[in-house]
Amino acid sequence: MSSTINTPKPKPYRNMRYTDVIVIGAGHAGLAMSYQLQQAGIEHVVLDAGDIGQRWRSERWDSLRLLTPNWMLDLPGFRYAGQDPDGYMHKDSVADHLVSYASFMSAPLKRYSRVHRLWNEGEVYRVQTTQGLWQARAVVMATGAFAKPLQSPLEQSLPDGVVQLTTNLYKRPTDVPTQRIMVVGGSATGLQFAQELNQAGHEVTLSVGEHVRMPRRVAGHDIYHWLTKSGVFWEQAGEVDDLRRARRLPSPQLIGQQQDLNLNELSAAGVDIVGRFVGVSDGKAQFSGNLPNLCKSADLKLFRLLQRFKTSGLAFDEAELNFAPTEIPKPRLSMRFGASGVGTILWATGYRPDYSWVDMDVCDNKGLLQHQEGVVRPGLYALGLPLMRSRASTFIAGVRDDTSAIACHVAAHLDSRKQLLATAF
After folding, report:
1. Which superfamily is assigned to 17-147+353-424 in CATH?
2. Which of 94, 201, 347, 401 has the most neighbouring CB atoms within 10 Å?
């Protein structure tokens, strides 16, 4: 007796298009996934809300460069071929790099096909887009972790007249309409904004909470040389202590140039460093007083990282690992808004993923995707999330291993469905 598949029969839809796998997002992760599926001979389509590299061109500030050196830009089947492997690629060149990759592999791309809804009916997935309906047996969500800026609950408590800008809206110092500005966020983006605005002549206050201090170069090499050589960069999610906390850690304080960018440098340049922005009272911003402790903690973690390089077998002179501790003047605890104080706030508090279009119970109460190394459920996968499979998962350099692993899952899933259908009939 043949077995049966007890799943609801999908509803018929007019003008439905069919494929085996739908990849949502044509950034580096989605394109790399397409390459892996091509290599496996799996029929698929890549859907993107805009054009390739569009967000790099239109939703990032003018001076942005990658924090990782160009030699880390290799994609599956497509190596970096530029003349500056130790440089840091400008955002527009990153977009061009992705366009070249898509052209190289003739990716089956559907541009300007924004996904409004993803849902399942039985064992199939349905995707509603601006260009119609799709059906597939598997879906890879390659929209990553940086879909929309994080919102602060303090946004609603600011006095009238204070201008607010988010990371995706700020492009250049002339976008700031007031002389005095407060940048909120102590990671790479916040420090770069503070430096750029300070150099343009603005009076800048930088609000800093928990942060990760990291030097640009150590012992004559970029920090990512040592992170990759020591194995720290490739550390697997299962090897990380307190994975949930590690996934929430801010990005390191770096800039895409051959120089350090840290709180000492900014303070010496005249940037006013304060603690975490915690509230508004009587027309004043209130700051936490624990910044000195957070700076000591960041310095200690940097020391431990450098020591880890040594214990992994890499040779250093002790003098090459000595970095000055963070020393900034005693930070103020409040600052007035308005004409006599801060007139603009630039929120550099990070990004978060957006799964509002996913009509399935796959997220927790904070809207974060629940997955096991990128596997959400049978036939549904994700890419580009922090520590998804390793510390490299959100980086271009890490996409090769992640897409290879997900492609194996996809192939096994499709094969299992074929076997079930064969035994059913």
Report:
1. FAD/NAD(P)-binding domain (3.50.50.60)
2. 347
